[in-house]
Write a structure and sequence with these properties.
The complex is a heterodimer of chains A (110) and B (872). Chain A is mostly helical. Helices cover 51% and strands 9% of the residues of chain A. The longest helix of chain A is centred in the C-terminal third of the chain and has 18 residues, at 86-103. Chain A starts with 8 loop residues before the first helix and ends in a 7-residue tail after the last helix. In chain B, a hairpin with a 5-residue loop joins strand 6 (235-237) and strand 7 (243-249). Chain B contains 28 helices and 20 strands. The model of chain B is unreliable at 62-66 and 481-490 (pLDDT under 50). Chain B folds into 4 domains: 1-60, no CATH class; 65-112 and 351-521 and 742-870, no CATH class; 131-335, no CATH class; 542-723, no CATH class. Chain B is of the alpha+beta class. Classes of the chains: A mainly alpha (110), B alpha+beta (872).
């Protein structure tokens, strides 16, 4: 297995959003990933940041993408849909484990 | 450019995503969806560009050989050696960037910015309409309409507002007011900065009739209360005890949610339905709504249109008035359709097309400046063959040499951009002063982050255009080191650059000249009044106005030192509204675009207004006081009504009671509506003869040199105890000036843009011609050595260079003709062909171009043949 690369916070969020939106036969593409991120995090997020991060994660080998059939409602353009690779899953697991270890025994006051 | 910033596959996918989302949003509002799509795309492109810069900066290392730092130093030295070239290049960029960014700062508040309300895409304006008439014929709602609409669409949140009137704020002044219901601020998602209305403010029984609770706009709070934080609860009244109690302050960014023309409310009061709340024909309520998720504009329109039939069933029968036109009859009847429009369309309907036109023009100016720089650099490049050839011989590769030249121009654009940005506070301040009051801006035109970002993007765009232009022009020449310096000077590319510049400049100059001529016509058009030494007082008369009270009030004003005359009239003048005449139009009268107006006046009115008789006589003092059936008409009305006959002795019949008035005199036409809109003629009758004597305006004429007496007049009127309330006082010149704010602003913008285009073309053509002529020094020397005279050399050079100028004028004329048809609707009484404006524009362009051609030609002809032949 390839060496697991440390993930930035936003990269983790995007990977998790891709994982969530690609479940149940839904497609993970720009709009659905953005909507999922905004709905789940409650943050104001720049669309550009989502697209650039998706592109970067694909170049890093953490995502793969494929094109759907072009449709009229998209002006004759195809959707670029993303899937999380095994390397990314491993990286996410490693991140979660590291965080859990760090949190063990800690209790923050209000 | 888009594809170079974003990876190609990703760019396509993003555009598809945005299109998908746009179509979804377009079901609510196509305009808002389009604006959203552009904003989203620009946001993504900016983010992508920034990411690339950050990534590049991460991997950047200084080069050891001919590295960037070294190249930048060389570029600086190159520019220092050509100060005229550097100054003119940076100058044109600075000029165009300043103007383009200034225009953007204004346009940003009209076109690009979302409405300053929470989830503004869901907000709609609702008005009643008629299936038999176009959608532009709409009417505000009545209270029964509002109740029926609320019942028909319970999922939609509605709010109502009523606009108009003034409320005194003390010191003899009053401010425009609008009334809002309890739901409006919630609907918009606006929270007052301080305070707010209490629930009891909406209970009529609890409220004091003369003092209303009021929310002040932030600007009014600053201007009239000095931004005092302890202002809540403070009461301001006039001498009659009418006024306001400050209940709260609105946030600074608050924009009133209707397009109101010159009426911009400074104060909001609670809206309480009046006595007419059961009458479906009493219409005057504005209605806004917020669409729930899943409901479209069309769906709501259909549902409310069905509800309109409920109100129609209870609608009172219309009196059969034979004088009403078919359209008027429909307009006074019940609604059979309800129009629902996105609020953004309602607010920007009047200003958006102008804003887009101005912005495109300003962007054209930046393109013109960039073309200019390409032209200049292309000319300069020919002079640098020897230097570049030497660099190549020393090992400089083509990419390195291209980069060197590109850096030079990058420096020029940056220098121009910085100068342009430094000038922005000045130009934005000027725009702020000139901006008409009635332009609804969703943010002030100031130098904020968005405006600064736009300036940066515009600078990058200019740099990109220049770099691409140079990249196309240069490599072929760089790859041939040390060519001969002699060229025919007939470069097709450079000629094309000159022609395009001339064409663009002609379009802008013609537009500027047409608007300037229009403004000149407005200023020089006879207004009828003698505005000098004249003031207008807007007043509210006591409810039961009797002749004695009015006479005493006017006498009081006349006794003020410096006042010569004071006359009253019942019609609000210069309020941009035409009031329908109380008299029937005689059979056979000429039709007019605008209605005639009638007004009741007092005996001193004609002297105060400075109206002198054209023919006949004015009513006598006794006729005025007794309310005799006599009338004075304006010349235009006389010509329309009695076509060629003398108006004297003719009669006009009042519609309401059939009373007949005899025309005894004719006076000149005066401007009563607004500066660029005339009524169809005016009828003056004694105020005492009107059905319900009332006074809305008083004209006060001062003795020569006593204009300052206006302050004393205001003090007298403000302290009056007879029931008159002074709402506003201003000189007549100010009132006239305010009615041309918008025309003045448009003209100013286009004249400045046209002037800048001329300056840029002048510099560009001068620079290009100087370089092209300079290249032919040796050829000129040969010709003169063979016997050519200086005059013949000059003639030949001018003739040859004039070709591209003529081609540019031809191209520009076609485009300018199209542009002139577009701006025609903004002109005041445009003639069929405004030859003077066209001639002035063409002459200006020719002078600029000929100056650019003649100076270098003259210099070339002064050279000694021997010296010229020695040149390489």
């Amino acid at each position: 297995m390839a060496a697991v690369e440390a993930l930035g916070e936003f990269e983790q969020l995007v990977l998790l959003a891709v994982l969530r939106t690609s479940r149940d036969d839904r497609q993970a593409y720009g709009i659905s990933v953005y909507d999922e991120l905004v709905a789940r995090t409650g943050r104001r997020i720049a669309r550009g940041a989502v697209y650039m991060t998706l592109d970067r994660l694909e170049k890093k080998g953490l995502l793969t993408s494929f094109l759907t059939e072009p449709t009229a409602e998209r002006g004759g353009r195809a959707r670029r849909c993303y899937r999380v690779t095994k390397t990314a899953t491993a990286a996410l697991r490693a991140s979660r484990t590291a965080l859990q270890r760090l949190w063990e025994g800690l209790e923050l006051g209000r | 450019m888009r594809r170079s910033i974003l990876p190609p596959g990703l760019a396509d996918a993003i555009r598809g995503d945005l299109e998908e989302e746009r179509r979804r949003r377009a079901q609510r509002s196509p305009t808002a969806a389009r604006v959203w799509s552009w904003r989203a795309w620009i946001g993504i492109a900016v983010f992508a560009a920034w990411s690339r810069i950050v990534d590049a900066a991460r991997g950047w290392r200084p080069s050891t050989w001919l590295g960037p730092a070294h190249e930048w130093r060389q570029a600086m030295r190159g520019l220092r050696r050509s100060p005229w070239y550097a100054a003119s290049g940076a100058g044109v960029i600075a000029l165009s960037l300043t103007l383009t960014t200034t225009v953007f700062a204004v346009v940003d508040g009209v076109v690009f910015r979302p409405l300053p309300y929470v989830n503004s895409d869901d907000l709609v304006a609702v008005v009643g309409g008629f299936r038999a008439l176009p959608a532009t014929n709409f009417v505000l709602a009545s209270w029964p309409d509002v109740r029926a609409w609320k019942a028909a669409a319970p999922a939609v949140a509605f709010a109502t507002l009523d606009i108009g009137g003034q409320v005194p704020v003390g010191d003899g002044d009053s401010v425009p007011v609008a009334a809002i219901d309890e739901a409006l601020l919630n609907l918009l998602g606006v929270k007052p900065l301080m305070g707010g209305f209490a629930p009891t403010d909406y209970v009529p029984e609890v409220r004091t009739a003369s003092i209303v609770p009021a929310l002040l706009t932030y600007q009014t709070w600053q201007k009239r209360f000095g931004g005092d934080p302890g202002v809540i609860g403070r009461v301001r009244t006039d001498s009659s005890g009418h006024g306001l109690r400050v209940a709260g302050i609105l946030p600074r960014s608050f924009v009133f949610p209707t397009s109101l023309g010159p009426f911009v409310p400074e104060v909001l009061t609670p809206l309480v339905p009046g006595r007419s709340q059961g009458d479906p024909s009493a219409r005057g309520v504005r209605v806004l709504g917020r669409l729930p998720p899943g409901m479209t504009v069309d769906a709501l329109s259909r549902r409310l249109s069905e509800a309109a039939s409920v109100v129609a069933a209870a609608f009172p029968a219309l009196p059969s008035d034979p004088r009403l036109s078919a359209t008027q009859r429909i307009l006074r009847g019940p609604f059979d359709v309800v129009h629902v429009r996105p609020l953004i369309e309602e607010l920007t309907l009047g200003t958006r097309p102008v804003a887009v036109t101005v912005f495109v023009t300003a962007a054209g100016l930046l393109l013109l400046a960039s073309l200019n720089l390409i032209g200049l650099s292309s000319g300069r490049f020919l002079d640098r063959h020897t230097e570049l050839g030497l660099r190549r011989a020393l090992g400089g590769t083509t990419p390195v040499l291209v980069r060197l030249v590109a850096i030079e121009h990058g420096l020029l654009v940056m220098a121009g951009g910085l100068v342009g940005m430094a000038a922005l506070p000045l130009t934005l301040g000027t725009v702020g002063r000139l901006l008409p009051r009635d332009v609804v801006l969703f943010k002030a035109a100031t130098l904020d982050l968005r405006v600064a970002a736009f300036a940066g993007i515009a600078m990058m765009a200019a740099m990109a255009v220049v770099t691409v232009g140079i990249a196309i022009a240069m490599p072929r020449r760089i790859s041939r080191p040390a060519p001969r310096a002699t060229e025919s000077g007939r470069s097709a590319a450079r000629s094309a650059v000159v022609s395009v510049q001339i064409a663009l400049a002609l379009v802008m100059t013609v537009s500027g000249a047409l608007l300037a001529a229009s403004l000149l016509r407005i200023w020089t058009a006879p207004v009828g009044w003698r505005p000098e030494s004249l003031a207008r007082l807007r007043v509210r008369a006591p409810d039961a106005l009797d002749a004695g009270t009015l006479t005493r009030f006017l006498d009081q004003l006349r006794r003020t030192p410096g006042v010569a005359h004071a006359g009253a009239l019942d019609l609000p003048i210069l309020e941009e509204s035409i009031y329908v005449s109380a008299f029937e139009t005689p059979e056979g009268a000429l039709k007019s675009e605008a209605d005639a107006q009638s007004m009741g006046v007092t005996d001193d009115f004609f002297d105060a207004a400075g109206l002198t008789l054209v023919s006949g006589r004015l009513p006598t003092r006794r006729e005025f006081s007794e309310g005799a059936s006599v009338a004075v008409v304006s010349r235009r009305l006389g010509e329309r009504y009695w076509r060629g006959q003398s108006p004297m002795g003719q009669t006009i019949r009042r519609s309401r009671d059939g009373r007949v008035f005899v025309v005894v005199g004719v006076v000149p036409d005066v401007l009563t509506v607004e500066w660029d809109l005339d009524s169809g003629g005016d009828i003056y009758v004694p105020l005492a003869a009107t059905l319900h004597p009332n006074v809305s305006n008083i004209l006060v004429r001062f003795e020569r040199g006593h204009d300052a007496a206006l302050d004393d007049v205001v003090a007298v009127a403000a302290n009056d105890r007879s029931g008159f309330r002074l709402l506003h006082a201003e000189t007549f010149s100010t009132a006239l000036g305010e009615s041309i704010d918008w025309q003045r602003f448009q003209s100013w913008l286009f004249v400045v843009l046209g002037g800048a285009a001329l300056a840029i073309v002048g510099v560009g053509v001068l620079g290009l011609m100087a370089m092209r002529t300079g290249r032919r020094t040796r050829e000129v020397g040969v010709r003169m050595a063979l016997g050519a005279t200086r005059a013949s050399v000059r003639r030949q050079l001018v003739r040859e260079q004039f070709g591209p100028v003529a081609a540019g004028l031809a191209m520009g004329s076609a485009a300018a003709m199209w542009a002139s048809t577009v701006i025609r609707s903004y002109l005041y009484k445009p003639p069929a062909y405004d030859w003077s404006a066209w001639t002035a524009a063409v002459i200006l362009i020719l002078v600029a171009a000929l100056t650019g051609i003649s100076i270098p030609a003259w210099k070339a002809s002064r050279i000694e043949p021997v010296a010229a032949l020695r040149q390489d």
